[in-house]
Amino acid sequence: MPRICQGSRNKGSQKWIRHVVNQCPEILNCEITAQLEIPTDDRINWLSPLANDAYAEYQDQEFLALLKADCRNVPLQKFWPKGGPV
Known about the structure:
- The protein is mainly alpha-helical.
- The chain has helices at 12-23, 25-35, 61-67, 76-79, and strands at residues 3-4, 57-58.
- Helix content is 40%, strand content 5%.
- The chain has one domain (3-79).
């Protein structure tokens, strides 16, 4: 299943990632930019898991399509197993 709706699942790390991404992304963004040494003026644009998209997670070609990533030179299935990336 390439688009996995998480709906109202409410436990564990999925719960907290959903909460932070949708309610206070600046907390997570700050930590990510610090750990990866990304300039703080670079903006992180969260595409998933969003409340207005049923907290869906994407995998395989739908994941790349969401990112608008072009893999025409090397098809996804040549370098990534089915069921990933997510």
